[in-house]
C-alpha cells in the first residue's frame, strides 16, 4: 500500500488546552501540536491501533513543559504536582484513568495500560480489573509494573507561577485558601525546592499571560476505522490536594465509540475548561451522543452545548461557564474507506492556534 493511501485513511488531532495562551508563544504551541501529531502518525502508518497512537500523541504533549500536563503541570495549594489522565478505546469501549497521580511523567501511559489490561479479562477468582486508580494506589500500580516514580516533576515556570499566585492569595482576606496558605508561608518563601533545583527549559521564561491553562487532549482514527480519545491535565493552579479533575472522570474528559451502523457513526471527543462543570454535565459523552445519530453535525453539537451545558440545570449556580471540545465523527462505506466531516476537518486545523479554546463557551460559534 502506498504512503498516500495509508495516510488517507488515518487521522489525528490534538489541542493544548484552555486558558490564556500568549501570542508570543503561538509558534511554540504549533510546534508542540505538530510533534504530537507526527508521533501518532508514525504509529498509524505502521498499522498500530488508534489507542496506541492517541496515547503517543498525548504523551508527547506531556513531555513538553509548556503544557499543563506531565512535566509542565500546575502545582497544588500545598506545592505538589498531581496529574489526571484518561483514555477511551472506541473499539472495545474500555476506559482507563488515573487521578491525583504524583511522580509519573506520562500519566496517559498508565491510563492506557489500564485499558490494555482490561482486555485480558477478569483477575483470578472473578476479581474485576480497575478502570480508574488514584493517588498512592495508582503509584503502586506503576511500581508493580516497573514504571519509574520520580520525586520531582516541578518545572521552573510552574514553581515561579505557584509562588506568584500563592503570595496573591496570602494578601487576600476573602479567599478560601488564605488560612492554609498562611501555614505554608515560610515554605513558599524558603522552599527547599529552589529554582536551581529544577531543570531549566525554554518554558522557564514563559510570559505571565500563559500562567493559567488546562487539559490537553487528542482524538484519533486508525487504518481499520477504530477511534480513540485521550486527555491529560495537571489541573488548575492552587487546586486542593487530592482533587480529581474531569480528565480522570468517565464521560467528562474524553469519549470514543466506533461506528456501529449507518445511523450510529463513529465519534471521539476530548473536552477542556472548568473541570467541575465538565464533570457535572459529562460534556464529552453528551456531545458525542448528540452528534452520533444526527444528519446535521453542526446543529446537533450547538444544541447539545446549549441544552446540556449552557442551560444545564446542574450549572444554574454558575455565573460563568467555560468549556471547549475537540470532536470528530467518522463514516465508513462498505469498502471501509473513512470519511471525516469536512467542517470539523477544517476546525481541527485551527486548534493548533489554541484560539478556539480561549473563548468562553458563550462565544463559540459552530
UniProtKB/TrEMBL annotation:
Entries under Pfam families matching the protein: Asparaginase_2
Q: Name one GO cellular component term.
A: cytoplasm
Q: Which residues form a coiled coil?
A: none
Q: Site (Cleavage): give the residues.
A: 214-215
Gene that this sequence comes from? LOC106056975
Report the GO molecular function annotations.
Answer: threonine-type endopeptidase activity
Which family does the entry's similarity section mention? Belongs to the Ntn-hydrolase family.
Q: Which InterPro entries would you find in this protein's record?
A: Ntn_hydrolases_N, Peptidase_T2, Taspase1
Q: What residues form the catalytic site here?
A: 215 (nucleophile)
Q: Which GO terms describe its biological process?
A: protein maturation
Q: Where are the transmembrane segments?
A: none
Q: Which domain of life is it from?
A: Eukaryota
Q: What is this protein called?
A: Threonine aspartase 1-like isoform X3
